Amino acid sequence: ALPQPPLPSYFTSE
Amino acid sequence: MLEARLVQGSMLRKVVDAVKDLVSDANIDVSSSGFSLQAMDTSHVSLIAMHLRADAFEHFRCDRPMSMGMSLANLAKVLKCAGSDDIVTLKANDDGDTVTFMFESPKEDRVSDFELKLMDIDSEHLGIPDTDYCATVTMPAGEYARICKDLSSIGDTVVISATKDGVKFTTSGDVGTANVTVRQNTTADKKEDQTIIDLKEPVALTFALRYLTSFAKATPLATHVTLSMTRELPVMVEYAIQDMGHLRFYLAPKIED
């Protein structure tokens, strides 16, 4: 199965 | 002191029912702007962002911002005890460790109240940037839910491809392959049957169907769902909460080899 990146890599943690 | 009275209490129940299987515990943040909930699912693959504006409430008083940590499963149990037409009022003290829900029947001949214990939940808050998406597809929510369900029986990932003619969902698995194309339809008599595609450039992304199907639990909230996509960015799956706010789901695309 294709790798599934986690979300935090896209959004900045405030 | 927090006091908020929502005439259409059923909206709150639909929101919680839509997210309780993805997120177990969450902080509901209340400020003068209204109620917000932002949480990632347990695997940190999808993000939920809900906002219910203060003006959605017939009466709204929030003396100072507060964050109420709750088990969404318990919140769902409490909201299940409300009648579908009940008025729901939330009350909480500033330094309280409980929140009270009051349910009033429309004829006000039946009033019940439930007190829920609050929890301390430390959740990282993510900054979601405003994105100018390449493709925004607004389609009937029931249609989206059906496509997710049907394709989940064939494969576990779906390629969503948006072009000016329509949006195509493609999956394949041991059973075989499946394609569902929903064409742009801006002339349907009933607005809720329309599919509108706002395209800056064609885009095709691959997603895990398990999460997209889970987002479809929000279908009872709205007649339409909006899918916003841009290459290599998370898709935003958005359900409007009538004209009171929104429930948004974000899911990162799978990375092609």
Question: Describe it for me?
Answer:
The complex is a heterodimer of chains A (14) and B (257). Chain A has one strand at residues 12-13. Chain A has 14 residues and is mostly beta strands. Chain A starts with 11 loop residues before the first strand and ends with a strand. Chain A is rod-shaped. Chain A is built from no helices and 1 strand. Chain B has 257 residues and is mainly beta. Chain B is 15% helix and 45% strand. Chain B has helices spanning 10-19, 72-80, 141-152, 209-215; strands at 2-6, 25-31, 34-40, 46-53, 59-62, 66-71, 87-92, 98-104, 111-117, 126-127, 135-140, 157-162, 166-172, 177-183, 196-199, 203-208, 224-229, 235-241, 245-251. In chain B, the strands form 3 sheets. Chain B has a 9-stranded antiparallel beta sheet. A 5-stranded antiparallel beta sheet of chain B has the order 5-1-7-8-9, covered by helices on one side. Chain B has a 4-stranded antiparallel beta sheet with strand order 14-13-12-16. In chain B, a hairpin with a 6-residue loop joins strand 8 (98-104) and strand 9 (111-117). The longest helix of chain B is centred in the middle third of the chain and has 12 residues, at 141-152. Chain B is globular, with a radius of gyration of 19 Å. Strand 1 (12-13) of chain A pairs antiparallel with strand 10 of chain B.
Number of strands of chain A: 1
User: What is the makeup of the main sheet of chain B?
Assistant: 9 strands, antiparallel
Q: Give the rounded overall mean pLDDT of chain A.
A: 81
Tell me the distance between the termini of chain A.
32 Å
Which radius of gyration of chain B do the C-alpha atoms yield?
19 Å
Would you spell out the secondary-structure blueprint of this structure?
The complex is a heterodimer of chains A (14) and B (257).
Chain A: E1 12-13
Chain B: E1 2-6, H1 10-19, E2 25-31, E3 34-40, E4 46-53, E5 59-62, E6 66-71, H2 72-80, E7 87-92, E8 98-104, E9 111-117, E10 126-127, E11 135-140, H3 141-152, E12 157-162, E13 166-172, E14 177-183, E15 196-199, E16 203-208, H4 209-215, E17 224-229, E18 235-241, E19 245-251
Antiparallel strand pairs in B: 1-5, 1-7, 2-3, 2-6, 3-4, 4-19, 7-8, 8-9, 11-15, 11-17, 12-13, 12-16, 13-14, 17-18, 18-19
